[in-house]
Amino acid sequence: MANLTVVTGFLLMCFSNIWELQVLYAILFLLIYLVALLGNILICTVISLDGKLHTPMYFFLKNLSFLDLCLISTTVPKSIANSLSRSCSISLLGCVSQLFLMMLFTASELFLLTVMSYDRYVAICQPLHYEVIMTRRAYVKMAAASWFSGSLFGALYSASTFTLFFCGSREIHQFFCDVPPLLRISCSETHLAVDVTMAFGFGLGIFCSIYITISYSHIFSTVLKIPTREGRSKAFSTCLPHLIVLMVFITTGAIAYLKPPQESDSVLDLLLPMFYTVVPPTMNPVIYSLRNKNMKTALMKLIAWEYFSQGIPKSFA
User: Fold this and answer.
1) Structural domain spans, the chain
2) What is the largest CA-CA distance in the chain?
């Protein structure tokens, strides 16, 4: 029988053994993190303060921004701290927590993006019934269901992953605790619980993708029938950014989790997780705020209100 040592922590991947490059990496990630932090906090603040944005669409957008804020805060700050401290260690509890939170926020985001596609479908394809279908009680329940489902999924993934034995290398070939690199260093002969959970997650991902595809096929069919060019442009500007973010998010996550494990590390192993943990939280505020007329107007009002507190008091109830 092999000796099994109790693992009390892991070693996350360092991007370079050269101190100057480590500092450069830390600065780069810090700038990305600050952009994501500022952008998502700004969206949450603007939507909360402007009464005109208290609609289902912007309620979901505020939830998405909060999810993005939590998601990038789960992985990037720890990686920055490790780079600056020349330490790549993470405790067992820290690794479990990081994996659970990362799964919670990514799964919740996928479900929320699916709900947002339904909201856009009702708004564009059934506008006369929109207020009847998307009541406050209905859209709050949808958002709560997304969070609950993500929490359940995160618990399943983290529990199944850490039932495995880790008796060999403690080096995780990734800048945060993720399932594929943890499976690579596990000495358990079978990963049945993890495989079942991954199959379940893959099935949910396919279901969400199909549902979103059907929703947007109806949306684009309806949009193309709009007689005015301005109306078509407005509808496409709302939906296309959503689709782009979704495609990047789902595609990179699916490739990272479904591709066969390799003995040696590759650049792809490092880049893919960035596309579903770092890029969406950073790009979502830019996409939704710069391409959305109502968000830009509300942002200008907020800036004016900050500098001239007596100027526009009624717009922010």
Assistant:
1) 16-307
2) 76
What's the confidence (pLDDT) of residue 317?
Answer: 47
Question: CB-based contacts of 117: which residues, under 8 Å, 6+ apart?
Answer: 211, 212, 215, 216, 242, 246
Nearest of 153, 235, 243, 155 to residue 199 by alpha carbon: 153
**Torsional sign, CA 296, 301, 302, 306:** positive
- What is the pLDDT at residue 173? 82
Runs of H (alpha helix) within the chain: 19-49, 56-85, 92-125, 130-133, 136-161, 179-185, 192-223, 229-258, 267-277, 279-290, 293-307
Give 16-307's CATH code, choosing from 3.40.718.10, 1.20.1070.10, 3.30.1370.10, 3.40.710.10.
1.20.1070.10
Residue 3 tokens, joined: 């000796």
Handedness of CA 107, 110, 115, 116 (dihedral sign): positive
**Is residue 12 a contact partner of residue 88, using CB atoms and an 8 Å limit?**
yes
Q: Which amino acid is at 216?
A: Y
Q: For residue 130, give the nearest of 143, 120, 115 by alpha carbon.
A: 120
Query: Which residues in the chain show pLDDT less than 70?
Result: 1-7, 16, 168, 231-232, 234-238, 242, 261-268, 289-291, 305-317
Q: For residues 130 and 118, what is the distance between their CA atoms, to the nearest angstrom? A: 11
| Confidence (pTM) | 0.86
What's the pLDDT at 70? 94
Q: Say if CB 92 and CB 10 are below 8 A apart.
A: yes
9-12/171-172 β-pairing? parallel
Backbone angles phi, psi at 99, to 5 degrees: -65, -45
